[in-house]
Amino acid sequence: MILFLSFILFIHHVNTLHVTHISDCGTARGCWKLPNGCKDASDCQTMMTWKHERRHLIIEIESKLVKPDMWLGIGFSKDGLMGNDTVFECQFPATGSGSVYLSHNTAKRNIVLKTMHVISSGRYNLFFAYGKMENGEKRMHGMVGKEAPWKSQEQVRFCQRCSSSFANVDSVAADEFKKL
Questions:
Q1: pTM over 0.85
Q2: Domain limits at 159?
Q3: Where is the signal peptide (predicted)?
């Protein structure tokens, strides 16, 4: 089954987190809080929530990690690797406001898409990555240590009528990726 979903991404550059509807986690929406074990805005670096509204998947992200001249992205991977996968990203230039984009990862590149993307229902590993921008261009995220992408160890299901699509992601790993 293929779902045609519109994605609305709310991303804020913040000093304190205030993701709305966090009390709905596990019931009316799914949630992913980083790093492992953080509970709320007082100790989380990044929080993401998602829910369905009709044929739309609403995604809300807030992160303390992103500053001007940086970007952040959430990747959706069926195989747990970030090649041939969809990414929702926000770029924060040095001046002005941030912009939201839909992009696609190939084995070695990230390409911003100009059209709607079809995502099939199923289970996905989530990735959270961030990096610097120079002269308005994204630079690659770090590959080791605290700048390496975070990856959900369990898969998330995005399905309009599935109760499991409200599951919380409680276990993540900071993978140290090898360059391809």
A1: no
A2: 2-174
A3: 1-16
